[in-house]
Write a structure and sequence with these properties.
Layout: E1 22-23, H1 34-41, E2 45-50, E3 58-60, E4 75-80, H2 83-95, H3 101-109, E5 111-116, H4 117-127, E6 134-139, H5 142-154, E7 167-171, E8 181-183, E9 189-195, H6 198-209, E10 216-220, H7 222-231, E11 240-243, H8 246-253
Parallel strand pairs: 4-6, 9-11
Antiparallel strand pairs: 1-6, 2-5, 3-4, 7-10, 8-9
Length: about 270
């Protein structure tokens, strides 16, 4: 598990979408290879809480009664989409009362460690047939969950809660395709951005709204998107790029240039069609 807390690859102009609240690692035959999906996911930093040895803080999973004798229960660790929220959880633990000396020492050693999302995907794929494997429970940003809920309700959908990590895509119209952006050094490459931030998606929507008045923001079910990447063989999926949140882009900017900070700019001019 130590490999999870090291950079498995550089950040770059790659992206795609993702995951469930808990990813089990079970997947059908891939349309894209596992490596291609990993490379797409590697553009997004996520945040683990780790101890002094660099191992993720985890807890045992409760077994289903029917499966208790067949499979190990495994364990689960939280994966935060926000570095600030991960740090806030550590602060909460440190301020908790009634801890014994051993627990106090453990809590003091905790830290927030960023890893590329693709490394977690790779770990899940490598351990999917193992008992007692480590699973990952994703902690979406509450503000983005609220934004997703507001958009869904505004579109007339009756939604009580949003359990997954929301991703936002800008469409020319509800029955039209996704709006691409220009990317690359020459800005000649077209990419289809999927945003972790509603604010970023709104910025792109504002740019295209005058010419395409029916343009809107679609809230993507991230469980369905990862399934699409695995199942479908559509050419446009190669253009999909995942755009980290503003907070995570700020983090990427602090990395040495050798680790890259080439995530596409969310406000890049939309390609006119």
């Amino acid at each position: 598990m130590k490999s999870l807390v090291r950079w498995g690859t550089t950040f770059g102009l790659v992206g795609s979408t993702l995951l469930a609240t808990v990813i089990s690692g079970n997947a059908p035959v891939l349309a894209l290879t596992e490596q291609q999906i990993k490379e797409k996911l590697d553009s997004v930093p996520v945040y683990l809480i780790t101890n002094a040895q660099g191992l993720p803080l985890s807890r045992p999973l409760q077994q289903q009664a029917n499966n208790a004798q067949q499979k190990g229960a495994g364990s689960v660790t939280g994966v935060y989409m926000s570095q600030k929220e991960a740090q806030a959880f550590i602060s909460e633990l440190r301020n908790a009362k009634g801890q014994d000396a051993k627990m106090t020492e453990l809590v003091k050693s905790l830290q927030v460690t960023a890893v590329p999302l693709g490394v977690i995907y790779q770990q899940l794929q490598q351990t999917k047939n193992q008992q007692n494997r480590l699973l990952f429970a994703f902690k979406p940003v509450e503000q983005e969950v609220k934004g997703a809920m507001d958009l869904l309700k505004a579109s007339g959908q009756q939604v009580q809660q949003f359990k997954s990590v929301p991703v936002f895509a800008v469409r020319f119209a509800p029955d039209k395709g996704y709006v691409p952006i220009k990317a690359g050094a020459s800005e000649k490459q077209e990419m289809i951005p999927l945003f972790f931030s509603k604010q970023d998606a709104q910025g792109l929507l504002t740019q295209v709204k005058q010419k395409f008045p029916k343009a809107d923001i679609q809230v993507v079910d991230v469980d369905g998107v990862i399934k699409t990447l695995q199942d479908k063989n559509d050419k446009w999926l190669e253009q999909v790029v995942l755009v980290p949140s503003p907070e995570s882009r700020q983090y990427i900017q602090t990395l040495p240039k050798t680790e890259g900070n080439n995530a596409p700019k969310p406000n890049a001019p939309a390609q006119k069609k």
